[in-house]
Request: fold
Amino acid sequence: MNKLLENWPVKILCFIAAVLIFFFHEMSTLSSKSYMIPVTVLENGEMTLASEADESRMVKVTVKSRRENLADITEGDFKAFLDMNSVKEPGRAAVDINVTPDSKVMLIDPLELSFSPRTFYVPVEKYVSRYVPVKPSVTGSAAYGYEMVNYNVVPDVVLIEGPESSVNSIEYLSTESVSLNGASRDVVAVSSVLHTNRRITIPSTENYKVVLYVRPVGTSRIIKNIPVVFKNIPESLFVTNQEEIVDVTVEGSMLALDKLSSSDFVCAADLNSINSEGSHVVRLTVTGPKDIDIIKVSRSEITVYLSSGEPSAVEDDGTLTETEFPAGETAVEITEEQ
Reply:
């Protein structure tokens, strides 16, 4: 016992030195390996990274251990987090990084872990939400003679969340593409909402009913050279006019107008109130198919020349009556305004 305690301060110092030399030797024989780990942002519901913030942040994790232990370690064994819970105000903030190794890494002995950087300085914004309209994304064209005149989306709004500047910059979101190609009737589809801003989150995953309303294309056309016919010509009198013609401007669907010709219209001059020869000014009436609107006629009236002699230009037996107009057609009296 006396020999054990003899020069005990020197013995203790030697023991400590031996321990340090042992650990130094152990550490000097360890190998090291570094891994680049992507940093994930942990939101706190109040603050988030600003829209302009760089999201491709990486942290370098260095592991020291025996060479055989390092062979089994990969980047997937580490998680790096940027914890926003400590940030309370928008602006530029210093946020600490937390690195968490997998449980299998923690079982390795000996093991030394280090990482850098330990803090990021990042721009921070308020985390907000609001509803924005939903509009359909339409591809293709309707069938010839048809066009899309309107649409309806149910529901017509969607909730979005994210940095305040990003959320406020979005006017609307579009659905997945809905094809209109060759449609001649309303198109109904079920679609989801698309967005390309990674900073924007859509909490809901519901689908949206999209209706594209398709109608015939409305247009106008001029029908030329419609002959004027005379009806109710007085007995013993004859119309001596040369052939009279008019042009009419009509409106309707493109498909209906494509099929029209001058023979589909009747322009009549009614002489029922005339009983003497000579020149007389007579108003014209024009009839056409019932699904066509007559909006303009080149002439609203003509001068009719009646003679008691033999007709020299146009013969008319005076037997044309109202019942002779095609079925379903209506007469339009032309005024000066037309």
User: Anything to note?
Assistant: Residues 312-338 have pLDDT under 50 and may be disordered. The first strand starts at residue 31 and ends at 42. Residues 3 and 11 are 11 Å apart (CA to CA). The two ends are 134 Å apart (CA to CA).
